[in-house]
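An example makes the point: we print one protein in full, the chain in one-letter code, the fold tokenised, without further comment:
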Amino acid sequence: MKIKIMPRIITTYIFKEMLGPFLLTIGILTVTVLLGKVVNLVELMLTHGIGLKDVLTFIVSMVPAFMVYTLPGAFLVSVLIATARMSSDSEIIAMKASGIGLASIVRPVIVLAVITVALTLAVTLYMKPWGKNTLKELLFNVATKSAAATLTEKQFYDRFDGTTLYVDQVKPEVENSLKRIFISNEADGKDPVIIFAKEGGFAPSSGAEGRSIGIQLEDGAIHQRSSKDNSYHKVAFSTYRFRLDLEGAGSNNTANKRKRGMRELYPSEYITRLNELKASGRTVYSYEIDWQKKFSQPFSVFVFALLALPLGMQKVRSARMTGFGLSIGVILVYYLIDNTLEALGDNGYIHHITAAWGANVILGVLGIYIFYMAAKERPVIRVSAIEDLAKYILHKLKRLIGKR
């Protein structure tokens, strides 16, 4: 009975040792990235006056974009710190002396790896496109609601697609807040249209208008010169509704909604768009690599497991410093190889599958070798040299900061 229960206890113990650093690293990395977006949040709050709900939506929609990287990184850090701590306290030696095999140590790492891969796949395939779409929708809605507030009197406003807007006077307190309006529209490559109106105001767009801002014009005229017969047309109106399309939203004379970018598409939509691009004869190297990396990045967790477990099991003096140092080193090497192969793939020098999965294969083979060496209880690397280097760099940084 004891023999059967012991592996469960070991599995639970090691899993708990990894879970703490795993969650803590995710939290730290998430907060660190979000701090870099504080300026954008402050700008949205001050310039557009968005509320708490929109701020929370902004934050939540941004998180999936970098969770693709933080989840595998957090896994690597957690395994290295947990195994390095157990190694520094001689717990791994004690386990081996008690007859506990390497399989009992590997089991909880595999469990956490499977969980991390599943989460990363969900984030990459579904949550990341959702986040990008939600973020763009939020920014569009904010721009729509605060369009009048962001206009500056007596200045040309060219943020709309193919359209230049000029307003002589803005009075937010009245119903038709815009006075003496000038609009120049050159969308769709057609003859330019000039519109003058005495007053007008922004109005909510209907679903048929797509991603545009409606502007209701009062008491004005439309001027257009035809390039075909060199004729001049003028149409007076008492009320006229004009659409101001945001940049990238499509032309003013089409009712189509904004065409989403490739990274905003869900898996089935991505495959459909990719096939359409291939059929049109366009070069799709980068898109094919991007599609493959939706799977290769999550599965890099298994590569990190092969590397982290034997590296963390080496005898160390400082578990946390060694764990973080090795984590940074492995991540830098992985993404250096990955980015190099991706650049080669984008230019058509190597196959897109090689470009996307090459880093996993290279470091996976290295991980298998290191794991084999650890299983034979042979030294893998000089961990003491890494610790000495980390301490040296830390000492130099402290001296540099102290001088300043």
Summary: The CA atoms of residues 33 and 66 lie 8 Å apart. The beta strands are 156-160, 163-170, 178-185, 193-203, 212-225, 232-245. Residues 102-145 form the longest helix (44 residues). DSSP finds eleven helices and six strands in the chain.
